Structure formats: structure tokens, C-alpha cells
Amino acid sequence: MRVLQSAAIFCAVIDNFGDVGVCWRLARQLAQQENLAVTLWVNDLAALKRLRPVIAPALSTQELDGFIVRQWQVEYFAHISTDELVVADLVIEAFGCKLPEPYIEAMAKLAKPPVWINLEYLSAESWVESCHRLPSPHPMLPLKKYFYFPGFTAATGGLLKEAALDAQRVTLQDDVHSRAAWLDHLGVKLVADTTLVSLFCYPSAPLEQLFAAMQSGDPVLCLVPEGVAVEVMTGYLGHKPVSGARAVFGNLTLQVVPFLEPDDYDCLLSCCDLNFVRGEDSLVRAQWAARPFIWQAYAQEQSAHFDKLGALADRYALGLSAMQAATLRKFAWSWNGDEAVQMDWPAMQKLLPALRAHALKWQESLSAQTELAHGLVGFARQI
User: Fold this and answer.
1) Which DSSP state fits 82?
2) How far apart are the first and last CA of the chain?
3) Which of 44, 89, 93, 280 is the catalytic position?
4) 83 has catalytic annotation
5) pLDDT tens digits, residue range 169-188?
6) Which one, 63, 102, 119, 337, has the greatest CB density within 10 A?
7) Which residue in the list 19, 44, 120, 281 is annotated as catalytic?
8) H-only helix segments in the chain
9) What are the chain's domains?
10) What is the DSSP secondary structure assignment for residue 320, as one 8-state letter?
11) Is-catalytic flag, 105?
């Protein structure tokens, strides 16, 4: 059994917040729940600051949430000797970001090289199971890299989840006073018989179509974080959206809320009746919230993201009736830009009670699997 005392995570931010959000959560899990000394290398600290405002982007090294954050600068690795680099016992290359060559060389110099993991993107596609944990030998150095896939089955790496998350969710969902008090600190007032919706989407989302449909359905209060859907929200509000701004259109009320830190965002998801989420990190958090959700996948060339959307829809539909699954699937396809499918908001809103019960069962099934950080450490110890 290999002894692990330290971990290094390398994160290259491409765009948005998903990559750095996942890496921050993983670093915190490894530090706080797996008791490892963790260093998170990030090439864009400004992106992390958006999630954790206490970050100082100008600092090269700082402490955060029980681990060390370091700027991943090309210049730093270009001018340092491999003998000076301190290599962690567990080295995680997030989403194929490619480790700095000097760090790889320093790994290869060790009598017992560290465990090298490529943490892959989340997918519900079946091929993930056959690739999970597969080794890939380095073409020139005595090193192996292992592919680790998050996923929705026991044959994958599972999902990141904090130990206290369920208790927090239950409190907000079972205690109406706790829910109302938490929303109140955002300036959100609960209104009886109103569908509370959170909206986190990419700019390509068909928002005008959604907002038009919501105006004629049952009452909806739609909460939109600052910085999301700015152009469309500006058109509806008549000015640049700022926290607290509200506008009413028929049975739809739009309200801007702050761009929340990750733990607060978890609370928002738990409080809402329906959550629109995007990418990877918010998708996972929506499932832990045990509430109905609509996912906008990250758009890929040749519409390849519809394969990922379909794979998740097929898994999630187990336990739903054919009619329920079809309604959910059609709405998701429309939300992801399939113009051949009509966005039927009234049907979606009518389906929410059934989806709410289903979401809880789905969350319970995911919770029965091994948590990702714990499983990753267990796997690394066996190498």
C-alpha cells in the first residue's frame, strides 16, 4: 500500500468557471477529508477569485481553505532546476491540461515516482467505464499516467461531494423557516404558489424563448446571478443587471442575485424548485441538491455535446414514465439549441412535482457510490 502525504493539482483555465471550480472542490476535499497536503496550481487566479473573492491574484503563493494555491506561470518552470522542484506523492493533471515538462522530468528522477492521474471531464457515456483507470506509459520516461473518469455508475470514479452537504440540504428543504431566512439574506422573498427557479446558463441559451413562455404559465420567480445572461437581462431590465434588480412580465418575475461563492450556490440550488445549470460543476451540484434541473451542455463542434446530453438523459430517465422522460428530454433539447423541438414550458412546469420525487431518488443512488476524491486516493494508494 503506497503512502500518500501530499497532492498537487494542475488546472489550466480555458474559459468560464467549470475547470477551476472542480479543481478547487477537489483540492478542498483532498485537504480536508483525505488529510493530504495539497497544492493547487492555477494559470488564471482571476477566475478562481470570481468563485472565492478572498483570493489575491497578484500573489504567487497563498493559503486557501486548508491548501496552498500557486500561480502556474510558464516563466517559473522555465527557469527552475528540476532538482529544486518538490514533487507531490499524488500529481493530478486536470482535464488533460499537460503538466510542465520540468515537473514531469522531476517526477521521473525519483526512485519511486508519484502517482500521475489525468482527471477527465464528466460524462454519462458508456465508453467511460471501459477507459476509467487505464494506464498510459510515457513514451520516453519511466512514468505512467492513469485516466480517472468521474461518472454516474460504480464502474466510474463517482462525483465530488462534501460530507456535510446532505445535512445542509435537508435543513433548507425540510424547514420552511430556514429556507425563507436563507433566501431573505439574498433579498429574495418567498411567495406562495410560485415556482422558484435559478438560472445559470451560457450566452447561447434561448432565454427570450424561455422568458416569453414563463410569462403565461403559473407564477415564476427566476433568480439570475450577476454576470449571467447580461445582454438579455439588460434588455429586460432596461439597464445593466445589478444585484437586487427586479422586473415583472406577466406571471414572470426576474430578479438578479449576487454571483455566489460555491457553498452559497449549493444552498441556492437546494432552495429552488427548478435549476438551470451548465457545464460540469453546476451540473453535479444540482444533482446533489435533489431538485429538478435542466442542463445546458458545453457546446462542441458538430453538435457532439448532444451525445453527452443524450447519455445523461437516458440514465436519468430510469424510473420516469415514458411521457415524463419524453417531456424532460424535449425541453432539454430545446434548451440546448435544437430548433426542431418546441420549448413546452407549461408541460415542464406541470411535471415538476414528479421530477422532484425522482430527483431525490437519483441523488440517493449517486450517494451510494464512492465519492470521487476518496475513490481517487484509494486507487492511488494501490499503485
Assistant:
1) G
2) 8
3) 280
4) no
5) 999 999 999 999 999 999 99
6) 119
7) 19
8) 18-32, 45-51, 74-78, 101-109, 127-131, 165-174, 176-184, 207-214, 230-237, 262-271, 281-288, 305-316, 322-335, 345-367, 372-382
9) 6-160+369-382 (3.40.50), 165-367 (3.40.50.2000)
10) S
11) no
